[in-house]
Structures are given as structure tokens and as C-alpha cells.
Write a structure and sequence with these properties.
The complex is a heterotrimer of chains A (about 775), B (about 400) and C (about 280). Chain A has about 775 residues and is of the alpha+beta class. Chain A has five domains: about 10-130 and about 250-320, FAD/NAD(P)-binding domain (3-Layer(bba) Sandwich); about 145-245, FAD/NAD(P)-binding domain (3-Layer(bba) Sandwich); about 325-465, Jelly Rolls (Sandwich); about 475-600, Jelly Rolls (Sandwich); about 610-780, Alpha-Beta Plaits (2-Layer Sandwich). Chain A starts with 8 loop residues before the first strand and ends with a helix. Among the domains of chain B are: about 95-155, no CATH class; about 160-220 and about 330-365, no CATH class; about 225-320, no CATH class. The chains are: A alpha+beta (about 775), B mainly alpha (about 400), C mainly alpha (about 280).
């Protein structure tokens, strides 16, 4: 873009030439406003820094795009080319410079950049969050071989490279580079806490197998032309180094924002600016859009760029997503506006959401008007949505004759969020009620980004859980307990308490599962059984005032969250209510819990351990191959492929072995499916019978592939639907269909059940519920 | 994230033995096609190659046509129709049973004559051939007079076509019926004949003196006066005419013969006296002679039953009754004497020395046969299925 | 052995059923007295022939069920295999009863001979299926084939790195020890292991290296030996898998040969038609 002569005062100054900035610029141009876009890096710098050929998605799918600049899902290169062309067509005025400060002087803003000052009446900050890449602060970091991004890992071969950082980008870069180069990764802290689980697993494996070196708890002391000096816990280390890639993340410069006058809460270092429905911050005429205010998706940013210009002009513009809101609320009596306002006002749990956030939530949440007596969901259903009551009441069926009413403003169904388990009670409408049903994924996102949502859910969880464990207790006692109860998280493998420890607390498992082990006569710790979420343990030690040592060691099998109630509080509870004491005593005496597998000796314990490490506790349906019967004929795979478009969802040769049991790579249909954690189009879903399936809307992004710890989903090419005659003749290769994720679906579409099981000639392959494992092991008797 | 196919490394592939061998599918398809060629196409191509597909060995006499299946077999699944057998075998009566009741059966040649299994099924002789029906014949042919016979051990007493009852009737009678006899207008005493002793005290006659076997040797020739009786028994009618015997066989002509002979006797005196006297004398003497022959004491009467009739004109007053003997007492059975040549006649025909009447039926009873003959498989006995004695087709 | 194998499933139900059936059919056979001799064309012979043909049809249908009825098909494949095995064995006795124990040098006896060979190969297969899985399990020590192959690859990569970073002599020594792991048919059939290097060979080789590369050399020999070890374990495992596979190369072709010959037998015996002549 040529540098144009600038008018003395701009109508609009747009800081940042990302998708939001470009979109705003195009709209400003359309309205013939005087504007300029200030960009210190490349056009759409964040996307520019993406890895080569990365697939960029156009989420949310349903959201229409309002912008003169084109955008659709594609590779990084295609999108950038589209934007370049779009910018050229719209003749966007782009100024390559770094803005140092924006100060309000009177009713204009003075924008200092380089040695110049530009004045503008309105300023739009669309600077994203990459901002300034964090520097290391080490001497020598200005050299050309110190870079802050990696576009093409294959560019380098046979080099010595140091990657500084411990986030996802650092890990991805390091792994990609280590294929052909000697790589070392520098981590300021001891662990890779911020990265995705899948990435952590990969890097840990790579380090363990020697593919790359890792310097943890270390800092970079000096960078020379061909080597670096590191300060590690073991002392100074000099490392040969051709290139340093710094991926230490970036934050929008808080200093910069506060310098603009934007108010940010002091106790939240990573807080983002708050804006109203016109995208105006607390500073008049200073607007923020896009990733800066928590909308990392490109499409939303582009829409916001468009809308903010309209707001500046004072035009009433319906947000782009309003058409979707209308769709959502159209079927209700009354106007869409009224209903929207009603819902907005009635739900305290969403009170802290900004307007755009709330709208985004509502777009994805069906709104129901239920008549008295209508069933909302039934006990043991596999649905996992979150329900909020806007008006009216519902009734929760706790016992055969016991119903608990729930008023407007509260919520229910939250247990499905936590543990992914089946519904624990039937809910019906009491009076005519208006209910909002929010998908689990949206709720999980909110829990991690809006603090008040998490807090309210946690409190509600504890308050609601306790009566079900300790029935017939006055609610006043529970409120005391709630105050004293703590939520504790345990990583996989972490011990809750050891055998012999003084018992001092009761644990209610909120999420995840634990294994229980005891020492056998020779002192070996033998796994005896496991317990899933929804159960409590550790109560035996609390039944008497004396100090009682723990009778077993309890370890978290997967990431687990518990509500911990300390002994004094629990004793008070028991003292206040003798019924509860008797109940707990009885429970302790005959512990019969769901999904309990009991091992009797060390061998069985070892098998159980193996099973737990393979996520058996989380599985709802497990494909187990009895390797004493398996003849390696692969008919199970052939059957799977034959019933699934020629691509087997089962990998018999993969998977793990233990004793005479093999767990081939095949979906476990987990209670808490990790593959579902980040599925943008929400293609992964659970059917009413519990099977986890991938719907057709899959876009092939591969998140589920990385997230599944068992390597189950695979990306496979769809078979082309059109018949290509020339390809059939063999004259040309038919281009393959797009890649999509595929995994076992328990043959839910077939009337007779899993084809793999039915095709096994010796009956070695069986699909069992983990609770049947114990029986199966015992049947095999001493052959373990 | 790049899509992956179920990529298997080369080493993994090579570890599977199937990788080194030709495709199993091709192998079995090849074998199936080869088998089809060998078992169907190749034999189809020429008649001489069909030996391997025949369902069993052809019997010796048919070997000459064993490559020409169409000589016997007609369209599919239809077995062999009768005309195909008749084309070479002039069956005539052979095809029809000589036994009453079997003509109605819808039996084809191949119902009993089965090829492709050697001689034993081509001309079967097992008892089941008969007993499959005859053991419960009342269910198969209701109203049949036959009793159910399942084997030789339970075979009823032999029956003969003879006379029984009062008034006597010709019918099938069991030998154990006390009344059974052969009606014959012959006077003959076996005992009388067999007890004739010569001067040296030895018997003059033995069984074979009169009973001669037929040309096939199976049965005995009918007794005739000329062959057996004339040797000893001459028909003299007048003491004066010794050596002049009445020719046997023509009872009606006796009177004429006698008259002629007597006339010859008196021919010399014919010139001396009155011719009419001589005629009257001859007439009277011939009448006397005739009466003498045909009345007790006479030669004819000695062996034949004679009846007085009212003659017409000059015919004889006497009628010799027809003998009316049954040619075969057991027409449907076959007995072969030569195979029994080591057995004494009288050991089976036991009543012969006590028999004084020609009506006696001197055939052995079944018990006598059972002394040597029994059902197939009985140890130390002669195998005797039904067809040993009975014949389906016209008996020889 | 686990509770139920395909042979013993349902407490040997099919063994009992077939034995009883054979006894009953045998009794009827002995009590039957056809006219003439016993052979396939008597009434009982035709009935038994029909039963045998139905039996062969059922046995062949197993192949269809196995490979073409993944979506439907009544019952699991294991439940099909039980009757397949026992009915197959029973036919060995039933067919002679059909033919009256006649044999000759013809297509009919050829069908029976092929059936016998098929049953024998089937017994071989059943034995392999019952005996060898446990052996595979015992040898496996918890490692999958894939894991072993991956480890071989990984060791090869490590060896490559070592070779590159050291002298040419080292590289040559590495090349000598890095035997090509490309198993041939014979090696898998007979389970012949790759040559594992003896201590003497290794120390000789180490002697040829420059002194400062001794440590690296030790590591290299260790890696190379481990590689061969893993390869040999793979070979051993593969040679057991051979048992599971090789019998089928007989059983399938023989069974099709038998089926075709049996069909031809029925054709020749019942349909006398030469449309071509």
C-alpha cells in the first residue's frame, strides 16, 4: 500500500491490520470516512505467523459474515492471498508503523507513531493478543538468528536449534524441528503446565526417548553467534546453537492499554478490556474489537470490525448474530427483543458475561417453553446439556415420591458438565416454564473464561451433592459445610491419601476416578478396586473421634476433582443428625458401589493397574481381546472396514498388551470423552444409548486426534461420491475427498451390534463394560 | 494434521506370511475352476471319457455299451424307461409276471433290475425284493388272499393246486390239509409196484424205472403208457389171441379193434358156415371182450376209471374217464432235481411206499425242505431267498 | 485355556448333537435292507445324500457368513464355527453311509477324497487355533508387533546419528552390524532367526575403532544387538502366526475342490443330459 497524504484529522484510526481492522477499514471506506490502518507487522500478522499450510477454520459456522473482505475456511496461504486481494480491491489505506501511545486530548486522540503524531476522532483497537512477543531479556537476542516465529519447520535441516518457551507453539515447533535437526527446548518452569495435554505427552515422550533435550527450570544467559549459555539447576551449560526460536507467548501490552486509559482490574493480570454493546471501552470513542476483547475467532472479529464502524456513525446496526438470536427465540410468544431482555436479566449465572458473550451463548442454546408435567430429561439419560430456568419452575424427582421444586433463576443438569455421567434424576416442568438449554462445550468454555460462572457452579455442586449423600439433613447444616468444604484437584497419578496416614477428611469424587490399593503381606502395593465420580470415600476414618489410620491408599487414575470435607465439620454433621451417622455406617459396612472391580491378588491387581492406565475406568464400552483365543486373523478389522466405508476404525495390532488381555486401539466411549473437549463444530456427540459418535459436520481439524490419549480417532479421507470414469480406468488418480475424523461408533447403525465382535471366529474379541472385567479375569482364573 | 491411512510399514507387511504367498482367493478360485474342468467339462467332451463319472461298474454283459449312456438313459432324472430295455431284450412274457396279481403292479424293469452295481443288483435275488411288499401284503393290496410272509422261517406250509372238500373242488390247498388229493381217474399203487420182487428177491422196479427227468433235468417227464407201462402191462382181450394187444390210448376205438381181431380169428370158418352166424358170433364175442376189458378184472379197468354211457348207435358203451392230472401241482415254484441228486428220492417223497392211490400227493412238506434250506445268512444252511424257489417271471 | 473355545462352546453341544445324529442315522442304516446292495441310489442312500449335500452347503456357507455378512448374519462367527467344525467331522462318516461304503476310481470317490482332505486340513486348523494363541501370548511379554517395529526404526535412526557423528571406520562398523531386517518367506516359515553377534565378533569389531570412539562404539553395539534381538523376537512371533495362516491355504482350495466335485457328482448321478452332443 502506498503511503498516502494524510488529512490532518482522521475520522477513524484503526490500530492493527488483522481481520477486524481490515473489515473496519473496508466499511469505513464504504462510508467514505477518512481513516487509516496502523500496522507494525505484516498484514494480518497473527495469521501470517501461523505455521505453513495450517488449516484455518471459519467458526462459528452458523454466523453469517458481514464484511467486504472475503473469508472462508482454507489454508493460511489461501486466506492471506484473499485478504491481500480484498485489501487491494477496497484500496485500504495502510500505514506501516508501530503506535507507541494513544492519548486523549480534548475530544480527539493523539496517536504517536514513530516520530509522527496523527489525530483521530475515533480509535478502534484491533490489535489482537499476540501483541509484542515476549522477549527473553538475554544479551545477544537482537541477533538475526534469534526469531520469534517459525513458519516452515522443514526449512531447516541438520541444524542445532534452541526453542525457548513451554506453551503449545513452542512444543509444536520443537517437535516439528526435531525430525531433522538437533533440538533443545528451554523451559523457564519445571513443567509444561500451560500446554494442551496431547502436546505435553508428545514432548515428554520425545524428551524421554532422546529425540530432543530439555532444559527445565532454566534461563537463557547469553546468546552468541553459534552457541548459547544456559543457567540450569545443575549449573551453567554451553550449547552449540545455530538458531534461537523464542515462543514465550505474547500479551497485549497492559501498559499500552492502560496508557490509553482503559481500565483493567488489578488482580487479574491477564484480564481483557471490557466493552459495551457498541464495543466502546470505558474511554469514550475508544473502541476495542476482536481477540482483544475475547473473540479470537476470525469471523467474529470481521463482523465486529464492520459493526463498530456502524456504531461510530450512530447507525443502529443489528449485531451480525442477531439473525441467529431471532431464529433461536422466534418460536416464543412475545417479541424477540422482550424475550432476549427477559432471559438476559433472569439468569444470575450469566450475569458477568458481556453482551457479545451472552449472545454467543444464546445462539448455541435452544430455548424451550415447557408445559406443566412435560419431561425435561429422564434419569440415566446420556444427555449432558446445562439447563437454566428463566421463568416458571421445574421439579426434580429425587425419590419415588419426593420432588424438589426449583425456581426461576437457578440452573440444573450441571452434573453432566463435570463428570460426563448419566442424568441422576428425572426433571419435569412444574408450572409453565421457559428454559435455556446450553451445550456442554459452551459451558466449559465459560467456566474457564468467566470466573463467576465457575464459582457459582462449584457452590451449587457442593450444595446439591451433599443432600444426596447425606439425606434427611437440614439444609442449614449443609450451608456450614459448603463454607468449609474445599475443592481439590489431583493430577493423574497423584495420591489423595496413603495407607496408614491419619484419616482427616472425606472426599466426594466430583470428576474423574480413583484407584484403591492396599499392601499385601510382602509389602507390595496391590490395586484392589477403583471408584468413579459421584461416590465418596474416606468416611471410615471419620466415624470415630479417635485418630484412625487409613486402611488403603487412594490414587487418582485420571485428572480428578474432589470436594474435601474435613473431619471436624463432618463430625459436627454426624452429631447433629444421628440418622446420617447410621446411614453412613451402613454404607461403610456393605460397600456396594457401581462399577466396582475387585482384585484379589497381586496378579489381578497388576492387570487392574494396566487397565486403569489405559483409561478403563472412564470407558463405558471396552473392546477387549482375549489373547489366549485370538488367532490374529484380523477379521475384526476386516469387518469394521467392511461396515465403515472400507476404513477400519479398529487397530488390532496397535494398543497394549498385558498378561492374556489385549486392548486394541478402539474407542472406549468414555464417560468423560476427552475427544469432545475441543471440537469446534461440535461433531463429537453422545447418542442416547451412550455411544460417542462423530457426526457429519466434522471439518477434519484433528483436535480430537490430539486430545484422545488412546490414539483412537483417525483422520481419513472421505470416499469421493462422484464416479470418476477416467480414474476407474486407471488413467488418472482420483483426488481424494476431504479428510475427516473417524472412530468406532459401536456399530450403532447396525441392528445386531459391533461387527468386530460378531466377526471373531474364536470369540476372542468382546465388548464389555468395565464392571465386567473383574468377572472376566476371574473366569480366566490362573491363566493370568 | 495430516490424514493417515492404515499405513503399515514394510517390515510389518513382510512379517505376515500371506504377503509372500499368492492371494488365497486366487488359489481357491483356480482350484474350483480346475475341478470344474476335470469333473464336468472334460468328461462331457467325449463319451469315452465318461468312465470316471459313471455311478458304478456296469455289469459284464452291458460293458459293450458302457460309453453310450443314451442307450439306456432317457431325459433327465427319469431313470431308464422300459422301451430302452426292450430294444435289446425281447422280453415278451418275460416282462409280465406269470403270477396272478402282479400284472397290476406299476412296476418298470428298473424297479428291480438296477445297473451300475455289478451283477448282484442287475438281477436281484434277495428276499426283500419280495418281502418288502409281501410281508405286509394286506396293507398294500387290501383284499388279497395272500398271507403276509416275511421270510422262509415263517413261510406257511406249501400249497398245491389240487382237489379238496366235498364236493371236491380244484383250488390251492395247503399240504397240511388232510383232505388234499390229486384227482385223477387212474388206478395206480406205488406200493404195489415198488414191492414187486424178482426171483432173486430184489425189487423189480425203482423210482427211476418209470420217472425220467426232463431235458433240462429240473423236473420229471410225464408218465406215458408207451414209455413206462407198456413194458409190463399189455392189454390182452382174448386168451385165444395171445400176443395181440389192444393199442393203448383210444378207448373209443377198442370196440372196432376187438371186432376186427375177432373177425380175423373167425375168418377161416367163414366159408363153411353161415356168414351171418359168424357175424353174430364176432359181434357177441367183441361185445364180451369189450365188457371184459372195461369191467373189473379187465385190462382197461385195471388202471382206468370207466363210465358206462348210453352209446349212440354203434359207439362204445364205455367211456374211459380223462385222467385230469395236474401237470404241475406247484405251478409257481421251481424245483431242480439235479441239484438234489445226492438226495434219495424217498427221503423227500416219503409216502411213496405207503401210497396205494394215484390221488395221493406225494410231495414233501416244508419241514423237509427246512432241514437244509433257510434264510440267507443262517449258518450251515443253504441260502434260500424267495427267488430260490419262486419265480416272478414265467417259470421254466 | 479360557472357558469356552469355539470347539467346546455351549458345553460341546455340537459334539453331542452330531454324535447322536450319527448314531441314529447309523442305526437306521443298519436296519435298512434295500433290495440288492446298499448304494447311493437306494431310498436311504438318496436321503443321506441329501443330508450330506445340505451339510456341505452349510459348511461352505460359513465362508459367506465370514466374509460377506458383516452387517447381518444370524449369530456371531464363533457360534457358526462350532457347528461348522463338528458337522464337517460328521460328514466323514455320513457320506460313506450314503454310498453304502462303495468306493471306486471315479469322480464320486474323488469328491469324498477331497472332503477327507478338507476335514483333515480343518482339524489341523482347529488344532492350530486352539494351541498357538497361548504360545503367542506367552512369548509376547506385553509388546505389540507395531511397538517392536517402531523400536527397530528408532534404533536405526539412533544408529544413523551415531554413524554420522563419528569416523568413517565407525560408520563402516555400524553398517556391518546393522543387518538388513527384511525377512523372507523361508525365514518366517521356519522361524530362522537373524544372526546374533557373539561377544567375540563384537569385541573384534570394537577393536577396529579409534580409541576415542570406544564408548560410542559400545553404545552402538548395544543398540545393534538389541535391534537384532527385537527382530528375532518378531521372527519368532511371525513363525507362530504362520501356524494360524498356512492351513487355510489348504483348507480353502480343498473345500472348493470338494464342493465342485460334489456338485459334479450330483450332476452326473441325477442329470444325464449331453446337450452338447
Amino acid at each position: 500500500m502506498a503511503r498516502r497524504e494524510m488529512p490532518d484529522q482522521l475520522d477513524v484510526a484503526i490500530i492493527g491490520a488483522g481481520p477486524a481492522g481490515l473489515s473496519a477499514a473496508a466499511r469505513a471506506a464504504h462510508h467514505k470516512l477518512s481513516y487509516a490502518v496502523f500496522e507494525k507487522g505484516e498484514l494480518a500478522n497473527t495469521i501470517y505467523e501461523f505455521q505453513k499450510a495450517k488449516l484455518v477454520m471459519a467458526e462459528p459456522r452458523k454466523l453469517p459474515l458481514r464484511s467486504a473482505i472475503p473469508f472462508q475456511e482454507g489454508t493460511r496461504e489461501a486466506i492471506l492471498a484473499g485478504w491481500q486481494a480484498g485489501a487491494q480491491n477496497a484500496d485500504i489505506k495502510l500505514i506501516r508503523t508501530e503506535v507507541r501511545s494513544i492519548k486523549r486530548v480534548g475530544d480527539v486522540f493523539e496517536i504517536k507513531h514513530g516520530s509522527e503524531v496523527t489525530r483521530a476522532r475515533h480509535v478502534i483497537l484491533s490489535i489482537g493478543v499476540q501483541g509484542t512477543p515476549r522477549k527473553l531479556g538475554a544479551p545477544g537476542e537482537d541477533q538475526p538468528h534469534v526469531v520469534y516465529s517459525l513458519s516452515d519447520p522443514d526449512e531447516f535441516e541438520g541444524k542445532h536449534i534452541l526453542v525457548a518457551g513451554a506453551g503449545d507453539s513452542a512444543i509444536e515447533n520443537a517437535l516439528a524441528l526435531s525430525k531433522r535437526n538437533t533440538v533443545a527446548i528451554l523451559n523457564r518452569s519445571a513443567e509444561f503446565a500451560r500446554a494442551k495435554d496431547a502436546n505435553v505427552k508428545l514432548i515428554t515422550e520425545a524428551i524421554a526417548s532422546g529425540k530432543m533435550k530439555c532444559f527445565a527450570s532454566s534461563v537463557l544467559k547469553r546468546i552468541d553467534a553459534d552457541k548459547v549459555l544456559l543457567e540450569t539447576p545443575e549449573g551453567e551449560v554451553e550449547l552449540r546453537c545455530d538458531r534461537v526460536i523464542v515462543r514465550a507467548g505474547g500479551v497485549p501490552s497492559r501498559k499500552f492499554l492502560e496508557g490509553c486509559g482503559i481500565a483493567l482490574p488489578a488482580d487479574q493480570p491477564a484480564a481483557l478490556p471490557k466493552v459495551d454493546h457498541r464495543y466502546q471501552s470505558n474511554v469514550e470513542n475508544l473502541f476495542c474489537v476482536g481477540a482483544l476483547i475475547g473473540y479470537p475467532l476470525i469471523k467474529q472479529a470481521m463482523n465486529q470490525g464492520y459493526e463498530v464502524i456502524e456504531h461510530i456513525l450512530g447507525n443502529a446496526v443489528e449485531p451480525a448474530d442477531w439473525v441467529l438470536i431471532k431464529e433461536r427465540l422466534g418460536h416464543l410468544p412475545g417479541t424477540v427483543d422482550d424475550n432476549y431482555q427477559l432471559i438476559r436479566k433472569s439468569l444470575p449465572i450469566f450475569a458477568d458475561l458481556s453482551e457479545p458473550q451472552f449472545r454467543e451463548l444464546l445462539i448455541d442454546s435452544p430455548v424451550h417453553l415447557k408445559q406443566p408435567g412435560e419431561i425435561v430429561f429422564e434419569r440415566l439419560d446420556y444427555t449432558d446439556t446445562f439447563w437454566s430456568i428463566v421463568s416458571g419452575t421445574v421439579e426434580a424427582h429425587i425419590g419415588p415420591d419426593k420432588r424438589i421444586p426449583m425456581r426461576a433463576g437457578t440452573f440444573f443438569g450441571e452434573l453432566g458438565l463435570m463428570s460426563g455421567r448419566r442424568r441422576s434424576a428425572t426433571i419435569t416442568a412444574g408450572e409453565t416454564c421457559l428454559l435455556v438449554e446450553t451445550p456442554r462445550k459452551q459451558m466449559l468454555k465459560l467456566i474457564s473464561s468467566v470466573e463467576s460462572v465457575k464459582r457459582q457452579l462449584d457452590e451449587a455442586f457442593i450444595l446439591r451433592l451433599l443432600p444426596s449423600i447425606f439425606p434427611n439433613t437440614a439444609s442449614s447444616i449443609f450451608s456450614e459445610l459448603v463454607a468449609k468444604a474445599k475443592l481439590k484437584t489431583f493430577k493423574k497419578g497423584e495420591v489423595l491419601f496413603k495407607e496408614g496416614d491419619a484419616g482427616d477428611a472425606l472426599h466426594v469424587i466430583r470428576k474423574g476416578s480413583v484407584k484403591i490399593s492396599r499392601k499385601d503381606p510382602s509389602g507390595n502395593d496391590v490395586t484392589r478396586s477403583y471408584m468413579p465420580a459421584g461416590n465418596y470415600l474416606g468416611e471410615i476414618a471419620l466415624l470415630s473421634d479417635e485418630v484412625v489410620p487409613r486402611s488403603a491408599t487412594v490414587t487418582a487414575v485420571v485428572a480428578t476433582e474432589t470436594v474435601m470435607i474435613d473431619k471436624p465439620s463432618f463430625r459436627a454433621l454426624l452429631a447433629a443428625n444421628p440418622d446420617v451417622a447410621a446411614h453412613v455406617q451402613k454404607m461403610a459396612e456393605n460397600r456396594r458401589l457401581n462399577d466396582l472391580t475387585i482384585a484379589h491378588n497381586q496378579k489381578e491387581g497388576a492387570v487392574l493397574d494396566f487397565m486403569f492406565s489405559q483409561g478403563v475406568t472412564d470407558a463405558s464400552s471396552l473392546l477387549v481381546i482375549d489373547s489366549d483365543l485370538c488367532v490374529a486373523c484380523d477379521n475384526c478389522e476386516t469387518a469394521c472396514a467392511a461396515t465403515h466405508d472400507g476404513i477400519s476404525r479398529l487397530d488390532r495390532q496397535g494398543g497394549k498388551f498385558f498378561a492374556a488381555v489385549q486392548l486394541p486401539i478402539s474407542c472406549r466411549h468414555c464417560e468423560n470423552p476427552l475427544c469432545m473437549t475441543d471440537c469446534p463444530p461440535d461433531a463429537l456427540t453422545r447418542k442416547p444409548d451412550g455411544e460417542v459418535i462423530i457426526r457429519d459436520v466434522c471439518i477434519g481439524c484433528g483436535n480430537c486426534v490430539s486430545n484422545c490419549p488412546y490414539g483412537v480417532p483417525k483422520l481419513v479421507h472421505e470416499k469421493p461420491t462422484k464416479f470418476d470414469f477416467l480414474a476407474w480406468l486407471g488413467l488418472r488418480k482420483q483426488p481424494e475427498g476431504r479428510a475427516k475424523a473417524a472412530k468406532c461408533d459401536l456399530c450403532s447403525t447396525l441392528p445386531l451390534g459391533p461387527a468386530c465382535v460378531r466377526a471373531c471366529p474364536t470369540g476372542a474379541a468382546v465388548r464389555i463394560n468395565p464392571s465386567e472385567l473383574g468377572a472376566m479375569m476371574r473366569r480366566k482364573g490362573g491363566m493370568l | 494434521m495430516k490424514p493417515e491411512h492404515h499405513v503399515v510399514s514394510e517390515l510389518e507387511q513382510r512379517l505376515d506370511v500371506a504377503h509372500h504367498l499368492p492371494s488365497l482367493r486366487r488359489i481357491w478360485i483356480g482350484v474350483a475352476v480346475a475341478a470344474l474342468g476335470v469333473t464336468v467339462v472334460w468328461p462331457m467332451s467325449a463319451p469315452t471319457r465318461r468312465g470316471g463319472v459313471s455311478s458304478g461298474a456296469i455289469s459284464n454283459h452291458h460293458r459293450l455299451i458302457e460309453a453310450q449312456c443314451e442307450q439306456c438313459h432317457a431325459p433327465a432324472f427319469g431313470s431308464v424307461p422300459d422301451p430302452k430295455c426292450a430294444a435289446c431284450h425281447s422280453v415278451g412274457q418275460h416282462a409280465v409276471s406269470s403270477v396272478a396279481g402282479h400284472q397290476e403292479l406299476d412296476a418298470r424293469c428298473t424297479s428291480c433290475h438296477k445297473e451300475h452295481h455289478g451283477e448282484e443288483t442287475l438281477i436281484p435275488s434277495d428276499s426283500p425284493l419280495c418281502t418288502n411288499c409281501h410281508s405286509h401284503i394286506d396293507r398294500i393290496a387290501p383284499g388279497s388272499l395272500q398271507p403276509g410272509i416275511s421270510d422262509f422261517e415263517h413261510h406257511p406250509e406249501f400249497a398245491v393246486l389240487a382237489w379238496s372238500g366235498d364236493p371236491p373242488q380244484l383250488k390251492k390247498v395247503r399240504l397240511d390239509d388232510p383232505d388234499v388229493r390229486d384227482r385223477t381217474h387212474l388206478k395206480f399203487s406205488h406200493d404195489g409196484h415198488l414191492s414187486q420182487l424178482a426171483a432173486d428177491g430184489k425189487p423189480v422196479l425203482a423210482c427211476s424205472s418209470c420217472h425220467q427227468p426232463t431235458t433240462d433235468g429240473n423236473s420229471m417227464q410225464p408218465i406215458s403208457y408207451a414209455r413206462q407201462c407198456e413194458r409190463c402191462h399189455h392189454i390182452e382181450f382174448d386168451g385165444r389171441l395171445e400176443g395181440t394187444f389192444v393199442p393203448h390210448g383210444d378207448a373209443a376205438g377198442v370196440k372196432g379193434f376187438v371186432t376186427a381181431q375177432l373177425a380175423k380169428l373167425h375168418i377161416e370158418t367163414l366159408h363153411d358156415g353161415d356168414r351171418s352166424e359168424t357175424r353174430d358170433l364176432v359181434a357177441k364175442e367183441s361185445l364180451d371182450a369189450e365188457i371184459g376189458l372195461f369191467t373189473p378184472g379187465g385190462a382197461c379197468f385195471k388202471c382206468h376209471d370207466v363210465e358206462e354211457v348210453t352209446p349212440a348207435s354203434n359207439a362204445s358203451r364205455f367211456k374211459v374217464l380223462s385222467l385230469d392230472r395236474q401237470a404241475r401241482l406247484m405251478p409257481a415254484a421251481v424245483f431242480r432235481h439235479p441239484t438234489h441228486r445226492l438226495v434219495e428220492c424217498e427221503s423227500c417223497h416219503a409216502g411213496v411206499r405207503k401210497s396205494t392211490s394215484a390221488s395221493d400227493i406225494l410231495l414233501p412238506r416244508i419241514a423237509r425242505c427246512r432241514e437244509c434250506h433257510a434264510d440267507s445268512g443262517t449258518p450251515a444252511m443253504v441260502d434260500s431267498p424267495c427267488l430260490e424257489c419262486h419265480r416272478y417271471h414265467a417259470a421254466k | 485355556m479360557s472357558a469356552e473355545t469355539f470347539v467346546s462352546q455351549r458345553r460341546f453341544l455340537w459334539l453331542w448333537a452330531c454324535s447322536l445324529a450319527l448314531l441314529a442315522l447309523g442305526a437306521v442304516y443298519l436296519l435298512d435292507h434295500p433290495i440288492g446292495s446298499r448304494y447311493g441310489g437306494t431310498r436311504l442312500g438318496l436321503i443321506y445324500g441329501g443330508i450330506s449335500a445340505a451339510g456341505i452347503g452349510f459348511l461352505m456357507w460359513y465362508g459367506i457368513r465370514k466374509r460377506h455378512s458383516y452387517r447381518s448374519g444370524r449369530g456371531t462367527l464363533k457360534r457358526w464355527l462350532g457347528p461348522h467344525v463338528w458337522i464337517g467331522a460328521s460328514l466323514v462318516l455320513l457320506v460313506p453311509m450314503h454310498s453304502g461304503f462303495h468306493l471306486g476310481w471315479n469322480v464320486h470317490a474323488a469328491a469324498y477324497l477331497l472332503m477327507l482332505l478338507t476335514v483333515v486340513s480343518g482339524i489341523w486348523g482347529a488344532y492350530a487355533y486352539l494351541r498357538f494363541p497361548a504360545e503367542m501370548t506367552n512369548r509376547r511379554e506385553g509388546l505389540t508387533t507395531r511397538a517392536c517395529v517402531d523400536e527397530i526404526d528408532s534404533i536405526s535412526r539412533d544408529l544413523a546419528v551415531l554413524a554420522k557423528t563419528n569416523s568413517a571406520a565407525f560408520a563402516a562398523a555400524t553398517a556391518r552390524l546393522e543387518v538388513e531386517v527384511k525377512p523372507s518367506f523361508a525365514r518366517i516359515m521356519f522361524g530362522r532367526p537373524f544372526h546374533a553377534f557373539s561377544k567375540q565378533e563384537l569385541s573384534e569389531l570394537l577393536g577396529t575403532l579409534p580409541k576415542d570412539e570406544y564408548q560410542a562404539g559400545l553404545k552402538m553395539t548395544e543398540l545393534a544387538s538389541r535391534r537384532i534381538q527385537i527382530a528375532n523376537r518378531l521372527i519368532k512371533e511371525a513363525s507362530i502366526v504362520v501356524h494360524m495362516r498356512i492351513w487355510l491355504y489348504f483348507h480353502l482350495p480343498l473345500s472348493f475342490g470338494c464342493a465342485v466335485a460334489a456338485a459334479a457328482h450330483i450332476f452326473w448321478v441325477l442329470f444325464y443330459r449331453w446337450p452338447l452332443l
